[in-house]
Structures are given as structure tokens and as C-alpha cells.
Amino acid sequence: MNKQCLEIDDLDAAAIERILANAIAWKQKPASLPKVLEGRGAALLFEKPSARTRTSTEMAVYTLGGHPVYIRPEEVGLDTRETVEDVARTLAGYTALIAGRTFSHRTLERMADAVAIPVINLLSDAAHPCQALADVLTLREQWGSIEGRRLAFIGDGNNVAASIAYAAALTGMEFSIASPPGFELPEPVVERVRNLGGTIDTFIEPGDAADGADVLYSDVFTSMGQEAERAKRVESFRAYQVDLALMTTAKPNALFMHCLPAHRGEEVTSEVIDGPQSIIWPQAANRMDSVRALMVELLEGS
Fold first, then answer.
1. C-alpha closest to that of 127 among 158, 98, 152, 150
2. Active site (catalytic) residues
3. Pair (85, 155) in one structural domain
4. What is the CATH number of the domain that holds 150?
5. Which range marks the domain in which residue 188 is found?
């Protein structure tokens, strides 16, 4: 078992299955939660703010018996006051794990190379594995088995899309994505999905990706750090809004997911996000349950 989770395929299919099964079991019987962080701390380093990620991760640490230590970027000064490696080594002297929400994926790789304790990616420019875990957990709860189901991602071929594509490959789901030209999933990501044994189809037209899908997934058109591109992105993605018409292209009982925050009226309409097919609130709540089970997997495996 790898001591880090910087991308979802740092976990193998068996580890993901254990994480999902444990997350569901501990939701049903919270008293059975293993206190693997009893008397220990977890360093939570945030270069980017987040309501869901911070709250879910802090509560995961707390319910495992530990103490979450929230660290702002100015408190450590990565590669200004100290090198990334020296910051990681310092935190490893006080805490049982490091979880980071960073601009650069390389920052997390350098941390993981420098320490022996688990390092978890809470979001980087390349990956969002904890979101992908929460997503497959949510679908497992909805359907029981997710193998053979088809998830269609509508929008930017970004970090979230990449992690979900890898998670789909490792759990037996099919994955399709529709993106405007210039915003597709990078070819190395597509190749990596196929090397994991996954089924992935890429399209330009949203309706082609959504056709026959069991779930439609959307994300913001402009992510944090891309504000200067907002006007261009809004125009480029105008046809990629998930509305009721697009939902009818998918299967009749298809679900809708969004990693949040959502820009209502932009990438998704309020009718969809508040409608009966939307499962965004259980999806958001599962951020805590999935990262908690991931922490146990990494700590016990390490």
C-alpha cells in the first residue's frame, strides 16, 4: 500500500474497494470508527481556501480521534521562508499525516518524497483524488454496484475530470467527456485511463457524451486561479450548460453531480441542481466520509 494519495491511481482497485466499504460501514455505525489518530495531529496546508475541503477534512481528523492543524500559506512560506521539503519535514515531526490543497501538484510530490508519513492531495492543478473518492462512494450508495455504469463529464478537461476518469477505470465504470476545442482532457490522461483498463470516450458535443449516460457531471467553467481567462471561458463553454434538455439525452433516471461550488445559470441551471435527479448534497457530505476512510487506509497501511 502506497503511503501517499496524490492521485486516485496511487490506490489500486482493492484499496478503493476497502475505502468505499469502510466509509459506508462507519457511516452506519459511527461508534465503530477506529481512532487511528488518537492523541495525534494532522497538518492541513491550504494554499487555496475551501469551505467543503477544510470542513470535511477537519471533521474527518476529529472523528478519528485526532487534532487538525490548519495552516495558511503565509505561515510557512513555501520556497520563500523555507523549502517545501523543509516545511514537510518540520510538519512530520509533529503530525501523523500531511494533507495539502496546493496550486502546484509538484509541491505535493516534493512533500511526499521528503517524509515517511502519509501525504494526501486535497486538490492540485493536476488532480483531485479526494473528490473522486467521494463521487464513487456516492454512486455506490445510490446503486449498490457501479460497475458497467456510464458517467458523462460535461465541461473542462481539468483536474477533477482527470481524477474521476481514473476512478471510473479502477471501479469498472465507463467514462465519457465533452469539452470545447482547446479544453479537452490531455492525451496523456486519456492514455493513462486506458492503461488502467478503463473505457473512455471523448467528444466535442455535450449531447454525444450524455447519450445513454447514467450520470451527468458538471464543474465550474472557471476554476480558482483562472480568473483572468473568465470571459474567454464563459464564451467557449456557453453550449456546455447542463440543463433539463441535456438531462433528457441521458438515461431516464440519470443522476446529476457537481463537485461545487456551482455557478447557477452558468454551467448548470437551478432546475437541474435543485431537481429530483440531483445528488449534490449527499455527494458533498461524502467528502468527509471518504477522506476519513482514506486516512485509515493510509495510516494502517503505513
1. 158
2. 101, 128, 131, 219, 259, 287
3. no
4. 3.40.50.1370
5. 131-283
